[in-house]
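Quick start: read one record
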Amino acid sequence: MSSAKGRDREKLFSDWMKMRDFEGLTDKKGTAGEQLIYFEYHEGKDQFRGIFSKAVDFEDWWFTSSFGEKEMLEEVTSQKARGYEPLFIVREGNFYSMIFVKPDKLAAGRKALEALGIEAPEVK
């Protein structure tokens, strides 16, 4: 990832906020036609921040965080069984943040993330 993409991406993030507020922001932005495409959890702050885009609409999607690698892998397995694929998985400390989308939306989502310098997850 280039440092320029990292700087540009940093400007796109929402403020850090507690989960309830972040969920409210996600709903509000969704109503305005902006899709959550990436988010992070900060363990020390116990807060979330995200990047939203008008370029994609996942329609049916899921976002979550889990504590620990085992729990993350279980979440991935569970979501795959439900017909979802991980758009991204990012780790901060022992927390994993993930968005899952239907397979027909995966390419568009990954393209939007690639423009931000965010690579697809490698899950076994």
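The chain has one domain: 3-114.
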